[in-house]
Task: inverse folding
């Protein structure tokens, strides 16, 4: 059997989803730090700002190469999202549902809190918090659901010469 | 009821690895491995593609365990 060296479109779609989830998680962390800046002094806020910038750059580094490849494949009509009913796409869709559920509950809880305890915070703070929760839950749910994949990978069928 | 499958048996008969079968029907290796262990219930399209690849009816490969 020859060694599989070239990545198939289906494998690429899986990798694209993994990288996207990584990017979303990093962006979520960046939004969380941005929200945290409203509670710390200027010195710590400056430090958090730098960390936020690094997280943003890491997110771009994580996602940009696969986005470029996706655009290239789609322009060559080589990628028709045939992997849209794949396992990873299913996991990603479930993670999106989890994120929606989390953000819905979070907003219900946040609404009375914003009237009683967070009256001093600007609108941008709440936008950052909501985005952090949405992105964080999506990314974490994706990786939580896929965490056992490699351990369960069983392929002991000998393909022969 | 749980969906069971005989993909592993058919792969062994045809001496195919998960990656090879995945490439032949246009899905990722992870999709095949998670179907085999019962973690992922495949779409009708994927089930039909697998059955067509092995040249058997889909119910020969996928069945419900009572």
Result:
């Amino acid at each position: 059997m020859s060694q599989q060296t070239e990545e198939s479109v289906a494998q690429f779609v899986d990798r694209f989803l993994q990288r996207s989830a990584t990017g979303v998680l990093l962006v979520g962390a960046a939004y969380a730090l941005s929200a945290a800046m409203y509670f710390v002094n200027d010195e710590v806020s400056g430090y958090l700002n730098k960390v936020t910038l690094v997280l943003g750059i890491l997110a771009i580094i994580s996602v940009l190469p696969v986005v470029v490849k996706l655009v290239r494949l789609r322009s060559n009509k080589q990628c028709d999202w045939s992997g849209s009913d794949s396992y990873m796409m299913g996991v990603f869709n479930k993670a999106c549902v989890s994120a929606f559920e989390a953000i819905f509950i979070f907003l219900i809880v946040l609404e009375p809190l914003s009237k009683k305890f967070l009256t001093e915070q600007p609108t941008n703070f709440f936008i950052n918090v909501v985005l952090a929760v949405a992105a964080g839950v999506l990314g974490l749910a994706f990786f939580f659901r896929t965490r056992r994949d490699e351990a369960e990978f069983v392929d002991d069928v000998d393909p022969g010469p | 009821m749980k969906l069971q499958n005989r993909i592993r048996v058919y792969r062994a008969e045809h001496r195919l690895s998960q990656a090879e079968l995945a490439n032949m029907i246009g899905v990722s290796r992870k999709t095949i491995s998670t179907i085999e262990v019962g973690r992922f219930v495949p779409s009708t399209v994927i089930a039909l593609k697998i059955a067509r690849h092995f040249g058997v009816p889909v119910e020969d490969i996928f069945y419900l365990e009572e």
